[in-house]
Amino acid sequence: MKKHHQILIIGGGTAGIMTATQLLKKNGKLDIGIIEPADTHYYQPAWTLVGAGTYDFDKTSRPMAQIMPKAVTWIKDRAVGFDPENNAVTVKYKGTISYDYLVVAPGLVMDPTLIEGLPEAMEKGIACSNYTDPKHTWETIRNFKGGNALFTQPTTPIKCGGAPQKIAYLAADYFRKHGLKNTTNVIFATPGSVIFGVKEIKETLMHVIDRYGIHFKPFYAPYKIDVENRIVFFNHTAPDENQCVVNAENDLGETMTGDAVIQIPFDMLHLAPPQTAPKFVKESVLVNDAGWLDVNHYSMQHNDYPNIFGLGDVAALPTAKTGAAIRKQVPIVVDNLMRLLKHQEASNKSYNGYSSCPLVTGYGKMVLAEFDYENNFIPDPKLKRILVFNSAKEHWRLWMLKKYGLPYLYWNKMMKGKNV
């Protein structure tokens, strides 16, 4: 095994593969190594649809060997440590690998232990999550007979911040179509202050919440699950704020104690587990105080080590962690690496925080939130080609884009280094 690579990439996910393929398009002779232990590569954006019974889980995966560019060296091992002073990465089985330039893109990891009782709830199948097992989510929704259907998310950053509410809308639509609307309370509880940070999208989503009669609970931060009694405990993060509880005329069995602790009983629970950077990143010198890779927000170059870049979910970028964000980050990282290879400065600082969240609002309906660091709504002009002139409104064509167009673009364009 080669012990040194010109460019070493940690991670064979969206960010790692896209970076490698785009680098090779610029120069097919580059010596690139990718550290990736997994045998399978997943297209996770479709897991929302799997959880709603409208997409085949098997179609969300490909063997890693098919995705890995032929011209790279696949180091089938797990990164466990950094030595940036000596330009080296330690892997679990094969020792140390050195590099001229390093790209850190291992994604993030689920850490259910950050909510008391969550590991047990997931293990027993009492909680479901599209983040870990979307097939189980669909089974749970299909078998639901009524009561409190509670959807929530943690206080940590999460990948695809809209995913916890998307499945709430799909479940509410499913319950309505199957005669369960009058016997069901769909509750969406979030630590956030609003349903979505982009004004144009927020307005549409508040109409969606009203249409389904969803109980929207902002400022609710889950911290404990009582598995035996099926109760979630929340801290109310802003006790002085108006709780803005929408559609609150039904009795949810919700109780609140004096110290701003709320209890909500549930018959069905879906949540995004707490998420963090992988342990070997979190415990390294490369992270900021919050435990995410400390990179420049506009160039993705590390703030202390100029020959290191970080992008994708592991990066400390104040925008949503999505594949769409990676699509805009990769060309800038690639351009900066090519500049460094020519002994120039990594001067491309053009990333504006672009991210995109396809918000499925029901079967056959979707809005597309595209935004930047300032939460400006910045829809892609190309949407007009598919006759979508306002992507902040629900549209069946956007649903078709989510279900058919985006998976095609992912496998056939993005993973092959083509610009989308």
Explain what the structure shows:
This protein is an alpha/beta fold and 420 residues long. Helices cover 25% and strands 24% of the residues. The protein has helices at residues 14-26, 47-51, 64-67, 118-123, 134-143, 163-177, 199-212, 279-282, 323-341, 396-412, and strands at residues 4-10, 32-35, 40-42, 61-63, 73-75, 79-83, 88-91, 95-104, 109-110, 127-128, 147-152, 184-189, 215-217, 220-226, 231-236, 255-256, 261-265, 268-271, 275-276, 308-310, 355-362, 365-371. The strands form 6 sheets. Strands 1, 2, 5, 6, 7, 8 and 20 form a 7-stranded mixed beta sheet that branches. It has a 5-stranded parallel beta sheet with strand order 10-18-11-12-13. β12 (184-189), α7 (199-212) and β13 form a beta-alpha-beta unit. α1 packs parallel to α9 (323-341).
The gist of it:
This protein has 420 residues and is of the alpha/beta class. It is 25% helix and 24% strand.
3D shape: globular
Structural class: alpha/beta
Strand content: 15-25%
- What's the story with the biggest beta sheet? 7 strands, mixed
* Average pLDDT level: 95
Determine the fraction of residues in helical runs and give it as a percent range. 25-40%
Count of DSSP H/I helices: 10
Oligomeric status: single chain
